[in-house]
Design a protein that fits this description.
The chain is 14% helix and 35% strand. The chain is α+β, with helices and mostly antiparallel strands. It folds into two domains: 15-136 and 292-311, 3-Layer(aba) Sandwich (Rossmann fold); 139-288, Sandwich (Tumour Suppressor Smad4). It starts with 14 loop residues before the first strand and ends in a 10-residue tail after the last helix.
Amino acid sequence: MTKGGSHPPGESRPGRFSGSVRRLGVVYREHTPDVLGIVDRLKVWAAARDISVDVETEAGHGLGTTLDLIENPVDLVVALGGDGTFLRASRLAVGTDIPVVGVNLGRLGFLTAIPDVHLEEGLEKVVSGDAVIEHRFRLHARIEMEGVITGEKFYALNDVVVHTTGAARVTPLTLSIGATASRVDEDEYDLDGMEDVGSFAADGVIISTPTGSTAYSMSAGGPIIVPEVEAIVVTPICPHSLAVRPLVVPAHATLRVGSLDPGGDHQVTVDGRVVYKLDPGQQVIVSRESRPMSLVRLPEQTFFNTMRRKLNWAARPPERT
């Protein structure tokens, strides 16, 4: 499986990263100490291999598209930072098959593949074909009111969260589920055919992908989902009932979240960014994006190995002496 090929929806089996890398796009976290020095190291490494480098100009200031991968595609995007930088790089790659590899300059770095001290060695493995590529599905969220859906889409590799703003307080939310329409690219939703799952009082609700199951959803008590599993996780945030538990639904499902509080103050957060303030009566429609993102990792960086190292999962206590 090559780095630039097309993949059927739902294709999540890992394959070998292959193909010529002649042009890199670089996304970085500007507030990381010495990050510009790391960018310079990357440029020196690339120049020695006759690889051109396009570095984003605004480093996430939100001043517009700083690395336009649609108009100016590259062979590989390198994200220098933590998981937040990787998620931003993933958003830039929406609508393309351009793979993304993360270099960890942060603390956890669950999605990143290469420690900064091994930058050159790790990139050498990638461009020489010794890396693995995985196809992780995204979600997209849209806003609906009285059966009318807005045109704007919000893309999430990790999660879509509907929650209260301001003071911490519970709010009554509704959850409905239906099958995704057969032609997702044309945004056909059978809103009338959706089934009411129920309502509950909580601080909010997290709708996550398997990739995002180890992020906010896990912190809120949701299950860890292996990336190859085709599922969406619905995790209520601090529900005001012992009967409300996380829910795992098929990846082809469409979900709708609304509020029963006519004066409620709610917002939508996508991959940790506030993207929309909900008006009374508006609901959030969440479904799977048809085109997955391509994540690059090194062969030794398996999901379970990362889970043990980064999350200390099932770690044995030290032996008594």
